[in-house]
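hey so i finally got around to running the thing on that chain from the lab meeting. sorry it took forever, my laptop kept dying and i had to restart like 3 times. anyway pasting the input first so we r on the same page abt which one it is
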Amino acid sequence: MAATYDLVIVGGSAGGLSVAISSLRSGLDRVRIVESDNEVAFPHLVGPNQLDVGFGETVTSVDAIAGRGDAGMLVVNTNRLSYRTRAVLVADRHSDQTWRPDIPLTDTERVHWIRFDPGTDHDILVVGASDHAVELTARYAAGGNRVVLAAGGMDPSKLSPAGESVLRRLEHDRQATLLYRSTPREIVLADGFPMAFFGDRRTPDLQFDHVVYAAPRTAFRPADVGVSEAALATGCVWFIGDPANDRPATTAPGWRVGIALAHACFPELDVAPLPSPLTRRTRHTGAIEELRSEHYNATITYFEHSHSDLWVLRVKPDNGDTSYLPGQYASLGLGFWENRIDDADDPEAESRWDKLIRRSYSISSRMFDEYGYLTDENGLDELEFYIVLVPPTDDNTPALTPRLALKTVGDRIYLGPKVAGRYTLNGVKDPYAEIVFFSTGTGEAPHNGMVVELLRKGHRGPIISAVTVRQSADLGYVDKHRQLAERHWNYHYLPMPTREPGIPKRYLQDLLRDGDFQRLGVKLSPETSHIFLCGNPAMIGLPEDNDGELVFPKPAGVVELLTMQGFTLDLRNAPGNIHYEEYW
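ok and heres what got predicted. didnt touch it at all, straight out
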């Protein structure tokens, strides 16, 4: 009598073990793995998961059962037993015996690309980015060898679930050194042993006792295990591998074949979908640390929260100059692989998981040094930034600040190699000129350094910094500005919260309309004054050129109100006295 099973899996590969474990967890009662060898890919998974494995069994045929009461059932015959089953997964795959690595190789018995049993206590380099490479790495590590896996281009989320879990275990238990982004470019013999040359700055050239290439493998075809046409017609004989024209439609990669098979043959099961590739990738601390090492070139040295959504941070580059002109900006970056503080759907995270998110931020200023004097930022080796957490909306999912929100002092970050921008004090030549800074929110960041620079150099004319925010708590530098105003008779700070109970709502445009500057004893004039604008484009209100006529947006921004008084925009080819930050 044939034993009856829900699922028979041919081959104890990483993919076969994955499907067996997930099927049992999904509710199948009886799953049998038929393995022709005397071990499966990951033996340590058998006991804890109570896997039923028949070792030394080779499948001879798979056929559909005809007869009443047996509709849709299959019979699997091996060299030892027969099984009745609702579904079959062929998880064995061929290794291509003709395949050779596509790099220069020394002809030696110490470089391998077919199955190789090294024994114990060897230094072994495994090269590959597949389940097969993980299987080899785990086997050699379990055998008491020191193993390095060079897995350049590996995407852990595309491994089978079992392969992925073993990779995490190898990382966590430090049983192998994993190089996710490195592959040797050449193998040569040095003193009788293979030397691997990687040709990149991340990985030194290393010598090993053996180098083993994980040769690519292809899916079994129906004839390889004696699958009949009648069995194929049931739709419940599945094969692990990448679909191709010469393979059955019931072929899927190992990382998702279990889900596909369950939906096709066991509709009564409540099969949980695999975690998203992004979720699965972020489990791999080794891959993430290599990406950080490759892309990040600076360290966060200071991270102060004005409140949960508003921060002042300083960044120190590993190398390079930190000098800049007050008002200029630099770029900061984090990888898409970093976690977010929110649960927003990040549309680019899947396709750009290993890429950097870069954004330009104006360089701010600490304003006072440790002794209470005005700071000379160019005497420091770090840059300060003033950043607000941007919340997601229906139309926009911010990528950088929700990741930056989870960082702290000591964390690594990307800092662009150069500062840039023409939003500077270069146009101010008269030390008695009236200087007014208008900003919204964190738009005051560049103005902080510009104010300090003017005061350090003894500017004698009036200096006014006006900033609108929603709440008073959004004024991250308010105490420092008040100290400046107390020390310097010609400096005035005008904070304007627009949603604070008990405070009338006013905007920067109202300062021009209502004569606030005259009440401060300051008269603005196109001949002597300079106006600096940074922040919300609606506040600035730049005009558009419509067939030679300037058309201003509505409601009127600061630029329109100033041009009505005779001020002119400072353009690249036409200097003026209305200066604005262009990268916003």
